[in-house]
Amino acid sequence: MDSEQFSKKIREFLYSEKVLKLIVAVNLMGTAFGFYYYRFQFMETSPLLWIFVPDSPLATLAVAASIIFYLRNRRNSYLDFLAFFGNLKYGVWTVFVLLYMQQGFLNYQALPLYIFLLFSHGLMALQAFLILDYSKFSWKTSLAGFSWFLVNDLLDYSLGIHSTLPETVDFFSPVAWTAVSMTLAGAVIVYLVKKTGLKGNFSEREKRVI
Fold this sequence. Notes:
- The protein is built from 10 helices and no strands.
- By secondary structure, it is mainly α.
- The protein is globular, with a radius of gyration of 18 Å.
- The two termini are 21 Å apart.
């Protein structure tokens, strides 16, 4: 089996209806756990700002919703964008922070939970590309999406509503600048994707979902 055939087999497996439904179920369970994980932070934050608190759980919820739309042969480019970039950004950012502040996290978190968070957020970043494959983002969609993530970054580090961390951080910390830099880098990624034509084709759903 050559590399092209192998790639095709992997693609057919990932886009099979059973696998996609499993991914939806896993993301919904991850979303439920995420909201539970943030329960104390919700109590310390004004309800007006709750939408900006659970970054990763909202990203996994967006993935589940995006795939459900896909399976029903429907599309929402805004939802797809939030699913794609939210999982890519918060997956990579969380892995970075867990490694950057490893000792601090291990001082108050059990090792199994730490490993779970590291592994699950790594998978979040990878699953983002499932969405990218079947979605098309207009400039309007991209601008709206990046505006949301930039506002989220600004509120996270100016009001301190970012994820609970073992160290105090402000807007000038490496953690904050990594988050902002990822949002700006994401804009470059979308530009390159659109320029090179590396985007999904929604009309091919019936060929890929078996």
